[in-house]
């Protein structure tokens, strides 16, 4: 027995020594070595990250410069933290770019994410097709016009809830982190499907239980479940990104979570499929001379069919000329809802935080709103007004510079290339740090200062990338900005918003995105 134990111990030791030797052989013989933290076998620098890879990399950037290497387990990542070293990664033209793909984990591959939808899709032909159809849908004039109205209707609903709360409890404290996420959930759901998610209504019913808003019972339960499952999905991304396939499949506890997360996605897909079938049936019943409502679901169903709403000029690419299948519609709607809710909500919330922290900029925003929108607060904000709100836009941008909602992206090269003067083989993973780029002292003097006026003059190329860059740049950037601007303009034209605790921190926490955990404010009518 003892002999067997000794043999097994020898075998394990031999395996461990071989693994360590191989790990460091790979490390010391790597091509184009860069400075960076010295990695440990198995974990690399994982033990130093303490849950926030963005903050860890920012501290490494101070020590090792704008281009360094970081090992996560046995994977070598190349950190790129300024506009110059990132230049090739942000070439916009698809045919000229060597960076058309994201780095996705083995779990994402196994779950099929790398072949469907948009966000993690690395199948060039499927991604290209989905991307073109999504871009076409999001730029249809009828869609944009309707969206402007929808945003304001949903805002007015929220303002109505605030007024009831104020009438019951003057000077009440509102958590904008809670309101903003419900606001963007309601908008995203409505612009995608023309269905009400009732997220704000059901939240209001929770906050003010003795003043229930009449919402169809099933719809509330369904909407709350949809919203909470959306958050669960966002959590599952970190889980699947950072844990190995072995861990999630075979280690008890992890395998339970893996199954729970897979069931969660299935639930969300099932709901979207139901909506697609119902909408297809509705469209069939509507006579061809009656215009259809241009929500994203209808735009996808009718794209490249007889019922297409408006042709977008200049789109001639033959591969986009076929209609979308139900699977494609489902995955694309899913990606749009998942990518559009948290991002816009947190951008709104952090901007409110910064405006409260810096009243001198809030004052300028108030003045600009008064001059552009005039004294009649019942007048709806027009699409054309948004362009004139330059100071508000500068404040939003400065907020996104300080706290980029997506602080980094993992990109992978299609083929061998020189980056920052160093040679890398195709397939190398690059950690593109938007935080690093936004805080680079060369491009942003006095980086710590909250100074929106930086954005009133032209800025350096690729120095500000809250929506990413290159062929995978965010396709929702225009409507994201439209939502944020319209929301903030609607709030600040009428109200003054102040932090309940003037010394409160921004309360940011990095999950899959930088989110605002809490932003407690008091909302009071302006004296103007
Ligand atoms: C403030 C709001 C938003 C921010 C800060 C934001 C930021 C980003 C960033 C940084 C990326 C990665 C780009 C890259 O890899 O270079 C991205 C991708 C994406 N975003 Fe957004 N986004 C926002 C709003 C939206 C909205 C409203 C939608 C949907 C309507 C959306 C849909 C997407 C999709 C589908 C992708 C994946 C694109 C692809 O891989 O081809 N985003 N976004």
Automatic annotation (TrEMBL):
PROSITE patterns: CYTOCHROME_P450. Pfam families: p450. Heme binds at residue 474. Transmembrane segments: none annotated. InterPro entries: Cyt_P450, Cyt_P450_CS, Cyt_P450_E_grp-I, Cyt_P450_sf. Its cofactor is heme. Keywords: Heme, Iron, Metal-binding, Monooxygenase, Oxidoreductase. GO terms for molecular function: heme binding; iron ion binding; monooxygenase activity; oxidoreductase activity, acting on paired donors, with incorporation or reduction of molecular oxygen. It comes from the Eukaryota. Belongs to the cytochrome P450 family. This is 1218_t:CDS:1. It comes from Acaulospora morrowiae.
């Amino acid at each position: 027995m003892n002999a067997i134990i000794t043999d097994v111990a020898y075998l394990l030791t031999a395996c461990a020594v071989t693994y360590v030797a191989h790990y460091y052989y790979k490390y010391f013989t790597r091509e184009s070595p860069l400075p960076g933290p010295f990695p440990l076998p198995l974990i690399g620098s994982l033990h130093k990250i303490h849950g926030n890879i963005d903050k860890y990399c920012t501290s490494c950037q101070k020590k090792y410069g704008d281009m360094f290497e970081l090992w996560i387990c046995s994977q070598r990542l190349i950190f790129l933290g300024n506009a110059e070293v990132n230049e090739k990664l942000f070439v916009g033209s698809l045919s000229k770019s060597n960076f058309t793909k994201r780095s996705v984990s083995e779990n994402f591959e196994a779950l099929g994410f790398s072949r469907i939808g948009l966000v993690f899709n690395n199948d060039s032909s499927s991604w290209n097709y989905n991307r073109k159809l999504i871009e076409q849908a999001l730029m249809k004039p009828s869609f944009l016009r309707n969206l402007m109205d929808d945003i304001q209707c949903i805002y007015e609903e929220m303002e109505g809830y605030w007024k009831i709360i104020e009438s019951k409890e003057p000077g009440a404290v509102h958590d904008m982190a809670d309101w903003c996420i419900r606001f963007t959930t309601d908008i995203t759901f409505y612009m995608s499907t023309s269905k009400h998610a009732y997220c704000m209504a059901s939240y209001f019913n929770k906050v003010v239980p003795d003043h229930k808003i009449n919402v169809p019972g099933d719809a509330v339960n369904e909407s709350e479940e949809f919203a909470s499952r959306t958050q669960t999905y966002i959590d599952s991304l970190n889980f699947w990104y950072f844990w190995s396939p072995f861990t999630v499949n075979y280690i008890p506890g992890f395998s339970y979570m893996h199954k729970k997360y897979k069931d969660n996605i299935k639930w969300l897909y099932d709901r979207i499929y139901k909506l697609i079938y119902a909408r297809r049936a509705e469209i069939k019943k509507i006579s061809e001379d009656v215009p259809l409502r241009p929500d994203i679901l209808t735009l996808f169903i009718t794209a490249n069919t007889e019922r297409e709403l408006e042709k977008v000029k200049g789109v001639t690419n033959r591969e986009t000329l076929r209609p979308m299948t139900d699977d494609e519609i489902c995955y694309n709607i899913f990606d749009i809802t998942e990518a559009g809710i948290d991002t816009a909500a947190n951008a709104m919330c952090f901007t409110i935080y910064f405006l409260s922290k810096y009243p001198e900029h809030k004052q300028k925003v108030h003045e600009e709103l008064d001059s552009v929108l005039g004294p009649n607060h019942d007048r709806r904000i027009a699409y054309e007004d948004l362009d004139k709100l330059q100071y508000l836009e500068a404040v939003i941008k400065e907020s996104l510079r300080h706290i980029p909602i997506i602080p980094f992206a993992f990109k992978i090269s299609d083929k061998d290339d020189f980056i920052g003067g160093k040679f890398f083989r195709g397939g190398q993973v690059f950690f593109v740090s938007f935080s690093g780029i936004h805080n680079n002292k060369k491009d942003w003097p006095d980086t710590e200062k909250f100074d929106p006026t930086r954005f009133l003059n032209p800025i350096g190329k690729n120095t500000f990338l809250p929506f990413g860059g290159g062929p995978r740049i965010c396709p929702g950037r225009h409507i994201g900005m439209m939502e944020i601007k319209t929301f903030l303009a609607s709030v600040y034209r009428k109200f003054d918003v102040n932090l309940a605790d003037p010394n409160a921190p921004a309360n940011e926490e990095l999950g899959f995105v930088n989110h605002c955990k809490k932003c407690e404010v008091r909302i009071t009518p302006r004296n103007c």
